[in-house]
Amino acid sequence: MELTLSSVVIQALHGLVYAMLLFLVASGLTLVFGMMDVLNIAHAAFYMLGAYLGSTILVVTGSFWLALILAPIGLGLLGALVERFFLRKVHVHGHAFELLITFGVFFVVGEVVKWIWGNFPRPMDPPGILSGSVNWMGITYPAYRYFILVISALVLMGLGYVFMRTRLGIAIRAAVSDASMVNALGINVPRLFLGVFSGGTALAGLAGVVAGPFLGTYPGMGLDMMVDTFVVVVVGGFGSLLGAFVASLMIGELQSFGILFIPRLALVFQFLLMAIVLITRPTGLFGEKV
After folding, report:
1. How many Å separate Cα 102 from the centre of its chain?
2. Which H/E stretch holds residue 162?
3. Crossing angle, helix 167-177 and helix 143-165, to 10 degrees?
4. Neighbours of 209 (CB within 10 A)
5. Which residue in 112, 114, 130, 110 sits closest to 122, CA to CA?
6. Conformation bin of residue 240: beta by default, left when phi > 0, alpha when psi is -120 to 50
C-alpha cells in the first residue's frame, strides 16, 4: 500500500478515536479500582448493557441525545444497587469475594441482555447532525468520530476537575488513604464509595451508548472490549486515570498502524507492550500499587 501524508494522518486519527473510546470505557474501571480496590469484572457487561439500553431509548424516543443521558443514569442506578446489596456485604471477606461477585454479575447481565433483546445485533445510527463527514485541513473524516474525541476529552477534563479541584474529590482521595480518619471527621465513607461505584458504572453505560453507532451493538461487544480495557488498565497502572489515558493512546495507535503494516500480527502488539511494561515496571506506567 502506498503511503501518503493524508493516509498516515487518517490512520493516526483512526487510532486516536479508538484510543479515546477505550479510555472512556477504562476510566470507569480504573476509577473503581483506584478508589475502592475492587477489580470490577462486570464493567464490560455494564458497557454492553449501556449500548443495548441506549439503542432501545433511541428506538422509543427517536433521540440519540436522550439515550446518551438516560442510559448512563440507568446504569449508575444499577451500579448503586450492586454496590449496596452485593459488594458491600462481601467487602469484609476480601478481594477474592469481590472478584467472584463481579464475575457473577458479568454473567447475569450478559444473560439478561440475551433474554430481553435476543442474541442479535441491534441497529444504532448516529444523530443526523453527526452522520456526515467534516473536511478539516484537507482531511475528510466522519463527524461521529470527531464527536467521540470531544466527549472523551470532556470526560477526562471533568474527572480531573472533580478529583483534583473539588471537596468531594479530596474527601474521596482521603478516604482511599485512611477511611477510618475520614469517617471520624463525620464523612459517610460507605456513601462515598457507593457514589464512586455508581459513577464508574455510569461511565461504562456512557461508553456503551457512544460505541453503539461506531462499533455496533451486539451480544459479544462486552467481551471484545474487555480484553483491550484490561490491557489499558495494566499498562497504565491500576487506579491511575492519567495512566489509563496514556495507555489508551499507545494501544489505539499500535492497533491502528499495526493493522496498516502487519494486519495478521496487529493484535499481538498490545500484549507485547504489556509484557515489556510489566517486565520493566511491574506496577504499570503510572501505578503506585498492585
Report:
1. 16
2. helix 143-165
3. 70
4. 28
5. 114
6. beta
Angle 208-211-212 from CA coordinates, rounded to 5°: 85
Placement of cell 499498562 in the chain: 235
Q: For residue 228, count other CB atoms closer than 10 A to its CB.
A: 22
Residue that is written with C-alpha cell 499507545 in the block? 250
Output DSSP code: residue 154. H
Distance CA 200, CA 72 (A): 10
Cα distances from 173 to residues 23, 32, 170, 189, 229, in angstroms, run 21, 12, 5, 11, 23
Listed in sequence order, the residues at least 6 apart from 246 whose beta carbon sits closer than 8 Å to its beta carbon are: 236, 285, 286
Q: In whole angstroms, what is the distance from residue 76 CA to residue 46 CA? A: 10
Contact 51, 222 (CB under 8 A): no
Q: DSSP secondary-structure letter at 217? A: B
Q: Which of 43, 54, 36 minimizes the C-alpha distance to 79? A: 43
Rounded to the nearest integer, the mean pLDDT of the chain is 87
In the three-class reduction of DSSP (H, G, I as helix; E, B as strand; rest coil), residue 140 is classed as: strand
Report residue 62 as a C-alpha cell.
Answer: 427517536
Which tens digits make up the pLDDT trace of 44-56? 999 999 999 999 9
Counts for the chain of helices (H) and strands (E), in that order: 12, 2
Instruction: Give exposure, 245-256, as e/b (b: 16+ Cβ within 10 Å).
Output: bbbbbbbbbbbb
Q: Tell me, what amino acid is at 128?
A: G
How far apart are alpha carbons 74 and 82 in whole angstroms? 13
Cell digits for 273? 507492550
CB of 251 closer than 8 Å to CB of 235: yes
Q: pLDDT digits over 217-275, tens only? A: 998 898 888 888 989 988 998 778 888 999 999 999 998 888 888 877 777 888 899 99
Q: Are 44 and 229 in contact (CB under 8 A)?
A: yes
